[in-house]
Amino acid sequence: MKERQQIYILKYITTAVFGVVMFLFIGSCGKKDEKLVHMKFDPETMPSMVTDSAVQLISDSGKTRYKIAADVWEVYDKAKEPFSYFPEGFYLERFDDRFNVEATVIADTAWHYNAKSLWRVKGNVEVKNMQGHEFKSDELFWDQKTAKIYSDKYIEIKRGALELKGYGFESNQQMTDYRIMRPHDGRLPFEEGPVATDSVQLQSDSIQ
Prior knowledge:
The chain is of the alpha+beta class.
């Protein structure tokens, strides 16, 4: 009889302990759930892929045409309009058929819209072509479908002693045939003051 009582008491204690443990476990889980933050994935603002210190060669029609280097490369391929974003510095080289660098682009930030084949570079933009002509602006767009580069921002062009300045810019993608839409200031070789607006427009239109 005593043995049965002892067994019964032991079972009771075991059941009670098990119940207390389960209660504490469930209670702790409940507290953890309260602290969880449920985040909804937004493909427009959250990248599906992030790459640090990226360097990549890109081909076009079977030929290597571009080299891209960036500290951070974010890919938003789930967005309504898929794009790549380079938030911490951007460098691009464009090659000709013989793999010579025909243009370089440096900027603080860049975007590439896949479907449009459109590049947008912004912040301390510096471009240099094969002839050594230098272009500086706050923002440029490069439409690969039309092979045009353009901007409505202020731009400075330096070609040796020749300097052109103004607003609005259009060029071929090699940056060898270009013009300023609204020139307002410039400096020609052997001149000590700004030249007339018409003269700057003539020079910018005739540069090859």
